[in-house]
UniProtKB/TrEMBL annotation, chains A, B:
Keywords: Lyase. This is WGS project CCBQ000000000 data, contig 00009. GO terms for molecular function: D-glutamate cyclase activity. Pfam families: D-Glu_cyclase. Belongs to the D-glutamate cyclase family. InterPro entries: D-Glu_cyclase, Putative_hydro-lyase, UPF0317. One of its GO terms (biological process) is glutamate metabolic process.
């Protein structure tokens, strides 16, 4: 099997420049946000206040090659890890607007930039498969459907009036208790659904579950209802909402194109039980 | 000055049976929820997923006289601490309905009950005074106004479709940045406001800011707008919402009648930086 490190090196060499869904399935993958230092404290606080859409896994520690949480990736060698190159694709934002797409952000990374790794729901998809309730997007070989909602995160500093983004997977009603139970334990990667059913869609302000704002459409068959989870695209929408207040460039991964970490969910859980992330 | 321990002993002796606002102002006070063990894991998870309305400070550790967080109260002697007697007043719920009010819950506490202490916004009111932006409820000598909202917590286990309760303090618009800044650091006791202004009231589904669901009404003068914080009454409303699913009695403090702890906010913050609460 291809190791996480090999995948990161393939990204760094720009051999892998597409999505990472299904790669090294035992290992955690992470969403990215890189901000100028002046906004790092506000964003940390946004994550701590809203751990369901924004579960904070780690923060860079002064350089793009080191995290403050040593077990997530190998930071011990030049080969190990570089946040500027080890995602397949990056989005560069200026004043909240997407400016450039790129396969690295070496030129954009400045002293004083701070990188945040956010948990990703890929982590629980294999658990759903193993429990006999596989997500339809996996069965169809598509990206998950993602929606903007009208549910606001609790604000922190400049991050005011920023809505949740949710991922949606269709399930028959009778499977919802099982689906909730299986994903509940993945609290560092969005945990159990935040809402479900067509009444849930209405509560979240989602008018048409067949027309996602991000990712691929997934048809609902008769008897299926939508089930919604917090989604790691939420920070990118936050940057679009308040970007006019941010001086300097902001960098994210391209949706679906994640960083593959060196740990499994259970290893991360064990680590988090013994420390503050 | 009366010490926290003296106040707790006055509660235990049923000398103090009213509210605790303004008592031992340097020290933290805490909200209470006591649940049968079968629901403790769901409620812990509800708190971890929704730290703004439900900032979890500590959980009892097998007995009503010991917490899993040693520095919050003196658990070292018989005199030190007893969760069943050291609040001024208790509310006893059955199937989500308020059944009895009492000055202790010694008879109701059963083996297997688990007590949760939740942060309280009293903790930041003196900081607002010191910053020159005193809350009007303090100036008027009234209880704070509290409202049910239409903002739902992210669900956990049996706790589904449970709305935020918020506290409201009126401020002139130009003071909002200062009020946000002062309370932001109190992230273990609700932190900065979750919304503000009359548009904020509308977003939260609050139609009349002069008619609170709990506490006292506070008039808004010309130029003042409502400012809303997460509130520790949220867990009690959660118990009312899903109480029909709970077998056995649930116990809370009476709103405003808190437990006075042996630590200041800064001591708690220091402790939390060094451990998982």
């Amino acid at each position: 099997m291809t190791t996480p490190k090999t995948i990161r090196l393939q990204c760094r060499d720009q051999i892998l420049t597409s999505h990472t869904s299904g790669l090294a399935p035992a290992y955690l993958q992470a969403n990215l946000l890189i901000l100028p230092a002046a906004y790092a404290e506000d964003f940390s606080r946004l994550c701590r206040r809203n751990p369901v859409p924004c579960p904070l896994l780690a923060v860079t520690d002064g350089t793009p090659k080191k995290l403050n949480n040593g077990i997530l990736v190998d930071s011990s060698s030049e080969q190990g890890f570089d946040i500027r190159t080890d995602f397949p694709r990056y989005h560069i934002y200026n004043k909240g607007k997407l400016q450039t797409k790129s396969n690295d952000c070496v030129e954009e990374w400045k002293d004083g930039h701070v990188g945040f790794l956010i948990g990703c729901s890929y982590s629980f998809e294999s658990a759903l498969v193993n429990a006999g309730v596989p997500p339809k997007n996996l069965l169809l070989g598509r990206n998950v459907s993602m929606f903007k909602t009208n549910k606001l995160m609790d604000p922190a500093g400049i991050f005011v009036n920023c809505p949740y983004v949710v991922s949606m997977r269709p399930y028959r009603k009778e499977f919802i208790p099982k689906v909730r139970e299986v994903t509940a334990k993945y609290d560092l990667t969005h945990g159990e659904p935040i809402d479900w059913g067509f009444d849930g869609a209405a509560r979240l302000g989602i008018e048409n579950v067949a027309a996602p704002d991000y990712g691929d459409p997934i048809e609902l068959e008769d008897g299926e209802v939508p089930v919604f989870w917090g989604c790691g695209v939420t920070p990118q929408l936050a940057v679009e909402m308040v970007g006019h207040l941010i001086e300097g460039q902001v960098i994210s991964h391209a949706p679906g194109s994640m960083l593959v970490l060196d740990v499994t969910y259970d290893e991360l859980r064990e680590y988090a039980n013994n420390s503050i992330v």
